[in-house]
Amino acid sequence: MLGRIAACAAVILVWPICTHASDGDGPLLLSEIVIASDPEPAAPRQDAEADMQTASAEIAALARTGALADTGERLPADVNASSVSQGTIASEVEPFGLHAQPVLTGEILLKWGGVEAQIAAETQVLARCRGGAFRCPRAAQQFLAIIDQGRERNGRARIGVINREINLSIVPITDLAQWGVVDRWSAPLETFSTGRGDCEDYAIAKYVALGAAGVSQKDIRLVVVRDNAARESHAVVAVRLDGDWVILDNRRLALVRDREMWRATPLFELDGNGVRRFVDPEPTATVKRVSSGSS
Predict the structure, then answer these.
(1) Which fold has domain 2-37+85-286?
(2) Rounded to an integer, what distance in angstroms lies between the CA atom of residue 199 and that of residue 105?
């Protein structure tokens, strides 16, 4: 079984996340949802490049001055201290009912560290937009509008509106087509500046928006799974709601529970405490939650 864990870790370090826009026989894709509902097509964003340059310049200036917010979170109080000291977070607080061990090196850790730095800088841009101190980039205005919609709601409604609005705000595209590289992770304002992204870009935007809308950081995870049907890695967001974990996926507007992702093998979870690898991952159809009183 350890061999399988190592193999899964190797996959995520070698294969890009979301190499395809569709998995053929998977859940209803966002493009199919939009076509089915026949909305009015959005007009091309002719000023997207200029908007992205404005946001990038502001972020770069903040980075140079070191004015970056500390977005790190301490481990929640309900995490068992002994499990942390042993390098494993107790399964009852993690998605899919699995244990998770810290990842101390590797490409995914570097990518997440880079994104966290971008998120910290963008947090300052959003704060300055709120304060009206400078010309707010259109991407930031759009992202703040989604956050505000979430703040107006509670519980499942808050999570659902953020999932829906971000899904409908971004056009799916591969990193190779958009950036000319196989795998690139973008913070929300960069994604909203272009209006395009792949699964991890959707997931990162949702991760940030949920926290900004009032969901506790200890209840949010960015999760990488292995889509067994499409034979590729895929990024989603898991949010703890009323004791269960619900999944936000760019391929569907509906929220599902983690145990309903039948064709997925959990690989990694990411949050303000770093990156952790799920231990002994199995397809979620066979994962059984074991009560604390069971042997």
Answers:
(1) C8orf32 fold (3.10.620)
(2) 23
